[in-house]
Amino acid sequence: MLPTRRLAALLLALLAASVPILAVAPPAAAVEQSVAIKDFAYAPANIQINAGDTVTWTNLEAIIPHDVSTKIPGEPEPAQPFESPMLQPSESVSVTFSTPGVYQYFCSLHPTMLGYVTVVG
Ligand SMILES: [Cu+2]
């Protein structure tokens, strides 16, 4: 005869095996990605994210301010335009992208600084 505890464990195992497992995949967790602004460049300059993810830009220069803006003269506005305040050294700005598309952005003070965020649905 089985000891009571072993019997209980066996019954629990049988019960667990007979219960259908309802595995529901959780939605993909939103991710935060970082882009450094350093040496007059965005690094990485190209990132790909999923809709719902957030990108945080941080100015890592010693003394140079920069911003992050999709309002590029002569370029069409993306689905979700944005324009950060001027970021002083060590300041950050975060944007959560809900709309898929390719977002080209630049620094309005240094228009040769370009970056791209590709948002996939
Ligand atoms: Cu700049």
Structure characteristics:
mainly beta, Immunoglobulin-like, 1 helix, elongated, binds copper (II) ion
Top CATH class: Mainly Beta
Q: Tally the beta strands.
A: 7
CATH superfamily placement: Cupredoxins -  blue copper proteins
Could you give the order of strands across the largest sheet?
A: 2-1-4-5
- Estimated radius of gyration: 25 Å
- H-E order: HEEEEEEE
Mean pLDDT: 88
Predict the CATH topology: Immunoglobulin-like
What's the structural blueprint in terms of helices and strands?
Blueprint: H1 4-18, E1 32-38, E2 41-43, E3 46-50, E4 54-59, E5 92-96, E6 101-106, E7 114-120
Parallel strand pairs: 1-4, 3-7
Antiparallel strand pairs: 1-2, 4-5, 6-7
The structure holds copper (II) ion (CU).
Question: What report would you give on this structure?
Answer:
By secondary structure, the protein is mostly beta strands. It has a single domain, classed as Cupredoxins -  blue copper proteins (Immunoglobulin-like, Sandwich), CATH 2.60.40.420. It has one helix and seven strands; from the N terminus they run αβββββββ. A four-stranded mixed sheet has the order 2-1-4-5, with no helix packed on it. β1 and β2 (41-43) form a beta hairpin. The longest helix is centred in the N-terminal third of the chain and has 15 residues, at 4-18. It is elongated. The mean pLDDT is 88. The chain binds copper (II) ion.
